[in-house]
């Protein structure tokens, strides 16, 4: 899902003695899917609640090819294929790819999904203007280097066709579980989850046009609040999502 090297950088507004990794090492994501399942969505079968909530803003009738970037366990890829799309599911974690293939094999849409092992921070392996819909469900919220995020969004704009759409989702600043962690970190809405050592940035739905360097104001920005369990305890979770028209 993110770069496969471990690099430490000082993030804006971080205490001078506190450094966080700029991304998660691939081994942490492999362990998340193989052992931890600390992130609820790592082991969830239903598609993302926020993706379903954004469906009215997404022009599914115009979609032929969809990319699911950072596909996790394949739950969103199967959902998208059930909408009648040809789906390419990408991830850089071999364990994630294995879970995705298992889920696809149990589905009725296996002929509509192709799974690719790829690190999208090194580029999206598709030609210009070749994709109708790009889905980023909790992927780029783990890109903490501004340059990496800018390059990633440039790649998305490149592969999207003229009338394509980009769906993005991350965790919100109101998320109770992550805020408990953020309160102990002297960083500005940046945390490292102690359950799996994976870093991420928390976002505010009111500021996505500034915080996401996509180059335009989102057609939709929303926050979804709901109760969910993490490591045996219940928290109010916050998902922030956006839809950009190309």
SSE topology:
Blueprint (H helix, E strand, L loop, with lengths): L7 E2 L10 E2 L4 H11 L12 H5 L11 E5 L5 H8 L3 E6 L2 H13 L6 E5 L13 E7 L8 H14 E12 L4 H7 L7 E3 L6 E3 L6 H4 L8 E11 L2 E13 L1
Parallel strand pairs: 3-4, 3-6, 4-5, 6-7
Antiparallel strand pairs: 1-2, 7-11, 8-9, 10-11
Helix pairs in contact: 1-4
Summarize the structure in words.
This protein is an alpha/beta fold and 246 residues long. The chain has one domain: Vaccinia Virus protein VP39 (Rossmann fold). 25% of the residues lie in helices and 28% in strands. It is built from 7 helices and 11 strands. Strands 5-4-3-6-7-11-10 form a 7-stranded mixed β-sheet, sandwiched between helices. A hairpin with a 2-residue loop joins strand 10 and strand 11. It is globular. 45% of the residues are buried. The N terminus is likely disordered.
Q: State the major sheet.
A: 7 strands, mixed
Give the proportion of residues in helices: 25-40%
CATH class category name: Alpha Beta
Cα-atom radius of gyration: 17 Å
The name of the CATH topology is Rossmann fold
Number of strand elements: 11
Number of helices: 7
Secondary structure category: alpha/beta
The ordered H/E elements are EEHHEHEHEEHEHEEHEE
Q: pLDDT below 50 for ≥5 consecutive residues: which ranges?
A: 1-20
* Assembly level: single chain
- Give the rounded overall mean pLDDT: 87
CATH architecture label: 3-Layer(aba) Sandwich
C-alpha end-to-end distance: 23 Å
Main β-sheet, spatial strand arrangement: 5-4-3-6-7-11-10
């Amino acid at each position: 899902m993110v770069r496969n090297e471990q690099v430490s950088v000082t993030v804006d507004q971080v205490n001078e003695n506190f450094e966080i990794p700029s991304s998660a090492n691939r081994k942490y994501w492999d362990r998340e899917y193989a052992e931890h399942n600390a992130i609820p969505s790592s082991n969830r079968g239903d598609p993302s609640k926020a993706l379903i909530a954004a469906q009215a803003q997404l022009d599914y009738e115009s979609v032929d090819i969809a990319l699911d970037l950072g596909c996790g366990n394949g739950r969103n890829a199967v959902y998208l294929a059930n909408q009648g799309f040809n789906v390419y599911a990408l991830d850089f974690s071999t364990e994630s790819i294995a879970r995705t293939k298992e889920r696809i094999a149990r589905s009725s849409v296996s002929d509509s999904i192709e799974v690719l092992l790829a690190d999208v921070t090194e580029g999206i392996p598709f030609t210009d203007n070749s994709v109708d819909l790009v889905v980023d469900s909790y992927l780029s919220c783990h890109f903490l280097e501004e340059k990496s995020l800018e390059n990633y969004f440039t790649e998305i704009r490149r592969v999207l066709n003229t009338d394509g759409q980009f769906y993005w989702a991350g965790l919100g600043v109101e998320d109770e579980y992550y805020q408990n962690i953020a309160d102990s970190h002297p960083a500005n809405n940046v945390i490292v989850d102690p359950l799996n050592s994976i870093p991420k940035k928390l976002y505010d739905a009111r500021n996505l046009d500034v915080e996401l360097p996509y180059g335009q104001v989102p057609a939709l920005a929303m926050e979804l609040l709901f109760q969910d369990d993490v490591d045996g305890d219940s928290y109010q979770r916050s998902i922030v999502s956006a839809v950009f028209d190309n």
